[in-house]
Amino acid sequence: MPPNEMAIPRNDFSLRRVGAMVLRYWYLLRGSWPRILELAYWPTMQMILWGYINQFMASSSGGGSGWVAQGAGVLVSAVLLWDVLFRGQLGVSISFLEEMWSRNLGHLFVSPLRPGEWVTALMTMSLLRTLIGVLPAAALAIPFFGYSVFALGLPLAAFFANLIVLGWSLGLLIVALILRYGMGAEGLAWIVVFMLAPVSVVYYPVSVLPTWLQPVSLALPSAHVFEGMRALVFDGTLRWDHLAWAVGLNMVYMAGGVAVFLYAFHQARVRGALLQTGE
Question: Does 145 score more than 50 pLDDT?
Fold first, then answer.
């Protein structure tokens, strides 16, 4: 290769480097059974808890016609889909934090790894962690409560995709904040999603919120997903309007999340903070 050609920086995207990073995170997860157990424990525990609460409320309603009596699986579906959002965000954040805890971030980026490849690996690992956590809980809902979230059919895939993409956007925002403010912002990885829970209308419709808060709720893709899920469970109707809003808002949030992350990463590199993130 001519010398002048060697001086040109290469900006190609390498699936091999992405695969290497996914393999690194997979080995970390596979080598620790408590981590795998923790992934499946909380979704399963929440599913069982809310499932029994739902059964109690249905029996207390005397078999009446309201939402409680009609929606035998609405709480179970809501819990499982909510955990997709939470695990999607946490999967990105935790994989990043593992690099921080091991003081390995600077070492990664003296290699040919590109930020875009790293983000792709974080998202891929987030998807794997989410599936490991949610699928056992969804399977156990069938013998426990006689309800299968898979009965939602193909719309379930659309709900899943929208929630995990929103989780990725939030995860990238959290990573950017940690890059900017250091490990003092680490706690955001566990609280940001729960800050959005009241306006994500996981267990109730948007209409129960105060009038002034409803536009805030409808500005979140998660609210449209859960409204669409309830319409499908109660009425057997797929609300394409909610699905379209969720997709459109997710495109905006994902673009914003990637832009904020890349800006924070660039600033951290300029300041030399990548070599000090473990401090």
Answer: yes
**Residues whose CB is less than 8 angstroms from the CB of residue 10 and which lie 6 or more positions away in sequence, other chains included:** 112
Is 4 part of any domain? no
Output the CA–CA distances (angstroms, integers) from residue 27 to 24, 32, 82, 88, in the order listed.
5, 9, 27, 19
Look up residue 212 and give its amino acid.
W
Q: Encode pLDDT of 203-254 as tens digits.
A: 889 999 999 999 999 999 999 999 999 888 888 888 999 999 999 999 999 9
Distance spanning both ends of the chain, measured CA to CA: 41
Location of structure tokens 């909380």: 42
Range of the domain at 52: 15-59+66-275
Which residue type does 263 have?
Y
Residue 219's contacts (CB-CB under 8 Å, 6 or more residues apart) are 249
| Cβ neighbours of residue 129 closer than 8 Å, sequence gap 6 or more | 29, 39, 87, 90, 91, 94
> Could you tell me what percent of the chain has a pLDDT over 70?
88
Decide if 7 is inside a domain.
Answer: no
Residue 253: which residues within 8 A CB-CB, separation 6 or more? 165, 166, 169, 221
- Tens of pLDDT, residue by residue over 174-215, are 999 988 887 777 888 888 888 999 999 998 899 999 999 999
Q: What is the DSSP string of 91-113?
A: HHHHHHHHHHHTT-HHHHTTTT-
Which pTM does this prediction carry?
0.88
Following DSSP, what letter does each residue of 229-252 receive, concatenated? Answer: HHHHHHH----HHHHHHHHHHHHH
Question: Is residue 174 assigned to a domain?
Answer: yes
